Amino acid sequence: MEAANLSVATTGVALPLGPEACSSSSSPSPGGVAGSTPGGPSLPGREPPFSVFTVLVVTLLVLLIAATFLWNLLVLATILRVRAFHRVPHNLVASTAVSDVLVAALVMPLSLVSELSAGRRWLLGRSLCHVWISFDVLCCTASIWNVAAIALDRYWTITRHLQYTLRTRRRASVLMIALTWALSALIALAPLLFGWGEAYDARLQRCQVSQEPSYAIFSTCGAFYLPLGVVLFVYWKIYKAAKFRFGRRRRAVLPLPATVQVKAAPQEAERMFTVRGPQGSLQTSGDSGREQKEKRAAVMVGVLIGVFVLCWIPFFLTVLISPLCACSLPPIWKSIFLWLGYSNSFFNPLIYTAFNKNYNNAFRSLFTKQR
C-alpha cells in the first residue's frame, strides 16, 4: 500500500519505478540513471529510452489497472440494475467492488506514475502525496476487510441458518460495511490526525506510508493481520460445520427397513420424498439444492481467502519487518509485492462471479439490453 520502485537494467538502461529507492541515497541523481545508453551518452537531466522489457512491464500494469477498474465497475452496474441483487450478500459484494474500483481509479495510476518518476522521486507535491497515501491505505484496507465480512456472512449463513434470518442478515451486513469503512478511515488518517509520522520527505522527494515503528505495527495489524486471523478462523469453522452437516444428511438418507420411496409424476420426476415410519422424516429435492448451493458458497469463500492471502502476505510481511529491523528489501521485490497486493482487487470480482451463475446471467442480460 505504499510506493515502491522497480529498477530494470537492460543494455545499460535503468528504469526507476517509484520513490522508495531514494532512501538509499542522500542525493539522488536528477535522471536516476547510471551509465549511458547504447547509442551514446545520455543527456543531462533527461531519461534514456525505455528498454523493451520495461515497456512490456508498464503495458501489463496499465492493462491490470484498466481490467481491475472495468471489471469491478461492471459488477457494480449489475448490482445496481438488477433488483434481485439489492439484498445480502450482494451489498457486501458491492462494498468490495467500490473499494476495488477506488484502488484502480485513484491508487494504482498514481503508484505507476511514482514508479516511473525520474530519479525515483515523488514529483507531485506534499498535498497530493498525503491524498494518495491516505486513499491507498483506506481503499486497500477496506478491500481486505470486505473479504472478511463476506466470509463472516457465509459462516453465519451455514452455522446459524435458523437464527440468521433475512432481517438479521441485512442488519449485520450494514453494520459490517460501516465498521469496515470506519476502521479503514481510522488507519488511513491516523498519521495526519495524530501526527504519527510523515508520509512526504521534502529533501529526498519521497512519498511513502509513515515508517514510524509503532504506526507500522498498528496499521499492518489493523489492515491485514487481524482480518487474516478472522478469515482463517471463519473458514476453518465453515469447513467443520459444512463437513458435519453434509455428513449427517448423507447418513440420514441411508435406506431403512421401514423406508418407502414415492416418486411424483413424470413431469415432476426431480422431486423425491422419503417417508419413514412413525419417527420418520421427509426430504425433498430442495434440501439437495440447498446443499449444493452451500457447497459452492463454501468453495467460493475458500478460493477468495486463498487468493487474498497469497496476494497480500508478502507485502505486509515486508512492511511490518522493515521498520522494526531497519533493513530493506531490494527495490524490485518491493514493487513486485506491492503490485501483487494490488492485483487482489482484480481477482476479487472474478472469484465471486465465477462461482455465482446469477452474475453470469445478469451480465448477459445487461449486454443484451444494451444492444
Describe the structure.
By secondary structure, the chain is mainly alpha-helical. Helix content is 64%, strand content 5%. It has 9 helices and 6 strands. The strands form 3 sheets. It has a two-stranded antiparallel ribbon with strand order 1-2. The protein has a two-stranded antiparallel sheet with strand order 3-4. A hairpin with a 2-residue loop joins strand 1 and strand 2.
Strand order of the largest sheet: 1-2
Q: Class by helix and strand content?
A: mainly alpha
- Beta content comes to under 5%
For the largest beta-sheet, the strand count, sense and barrel status come to: 2 strands, antiparallel
Shape: globular
**Strand count:** 6
Separation of the first and last Cα atoms? 40 Å
Oligomer: single chain
Overall mean confidence score, pLDDT = 77
Helical content, roughly? 55-70%
Low-confidence sequence ranges: 3-46, 256-285
Number of helices: 9
The ordered H/E elements are: EEHHHHEEHEEHHHH
C-alpha Rg (nearest Å): 26 Å
Jot down its keywords.
371 residues; mainly alpha; two-stranded antiparallel ribbon; two-stranded antiparallel sheet; disordered N terminus
Structure described in brief:
The protein is mainly alpha-helical. It has nine helices and six strands. The strands form three sheets. It has a two-stranded antiparallel ribbon with strand order 1-2. Strands 3-4 form a two-stranded antiparallel ribbon. The chain has a two-stranded antiparallel sheet with strand order 5-6.
